[in-house]
Amino acid sequence: MTAPAVYPRRNIAMAILAFAMFMDLMDVTIVNVAIPSIREDLDATPAQIEWLVGGYVLAFAGVLITAGRLGDRYGRQKVFLIGIVGFTLASVLASTSQTGEILVASRVLQGFFAGLMIPQVLANVQVLYRPKERAPVFAILGTITAMAAVIGPVLGGWLVTDNPLGGEWRAIFFINVPIGIVIAVAGWFLIPDTRSETVTNLDLVGVVLAVGGVLLLVYPLIEGRQLGWPTWSFVLMALSPVVLTAFVFQQRRRTAEGSALIPLRLFSNRGFVGGSAIQFLFQGSITSFFLILAIYVQVGLGFEAITAGAMTLPFSIGAMVAAGIGAALTTRLGRTLPLIGGIMMSSGTAWTILVIRSADADFSSWDTVIPMALAGLGLTIMLVPLLDIALSTVNVADSGAASGTLNTFAQVGGAVGVAVTGVLFFGEAGTYTQPELLHALSIAAWVPICGYALCAAASFLLPGLGAVKKHAEEQERLAELEESNPV
Question: Is the pTM of this model over 0.90?
Fold first, then answer.
């Protein structure tokens, strides 16, 4: 398929792909509210709790860019089906896990196979729809993202608290199985097996060096604390920058050959660097904050899982309310939007912690409705326009690689954020009494608070308003040119 509008069942195909994306995004958010139940049932260690979240996003990040190229080379339907089948089988393994180690392994497998799926969703938008038709599709995908953020914690809380399927926390993974089977069967018959006419060589050595360098930092941070910081943990952390430096040199050589995993010329663009920093800091902040918040309100305050899930609703609703604002104001305010959004998220998070500390053992989830909503509004105001702004001065030929790299930075940030925040939180949690956990939350929350503030600071690296407007005009001209000269 070369023409983007010839497939007659493209909307059905896109609905299947979007539902798979929804399942992946929901699986990221749903696990937080189940962690206290998992900890109690499997006697999971703090390190295993961190790996349940960090392992997923790190595996996702490691395969993300390569998965896009695999789809280009071997067919997007094939790679998508491998992803959804693998994800479903990993969910079976997770739902039947009898130890923390097996559950962590299943979560890593889930993240790996989800990383195969998601790039095929976004690539099919480009393949199946003409430029002027893509905006509403991306809007729908954005709405799905917001819905997953809303539904995930609430659904997870309901499954764990009311236990309608049996198995308590196991149900949050088992529910993926029938859904995954339906998606796989429908995808086999209804998703076209498109591929790219221009194929870039795979860079498996680059993947190993990049993931290895990050893992050399994340692994000792997660495991080292509970083992008393043995010598090997510091050795591994010292090796991390060495391996990442080797990755940079290897990528420089691959860039010259035209087959780099991440084209290094992107980092000579200040706007791209700013966007990468924001993605990294944001994902590390939000992933770590909701993890430690869920542990505190459930273990420290005795909230039921469904109450803990509902506590995040003001945040998600705030994000949905602001969805149209960011897009509408991008060409009017430019990088001021990420600046405002970062400040709102940092302020909303700090306000939330202040309210929790003030209420102490008498805290109610109603107490943080306003500050959580403020942070949610900030999320959308910061992220919705970010991609357009960060890529406004990037060469059009590099836009695909730049977009994939930004997403990868976000996922790596999530893993690093969980590791760093976990060191502070579990280091202060003591015997998990309410006062000890409140103290641990207050200390560890400085990571996301400062992370969001740094997002605001990094917005000054983004291109100015003039570049954003010029980019928008160029995109309109390119869309009109492609419409008048279809392939």
Answer: no
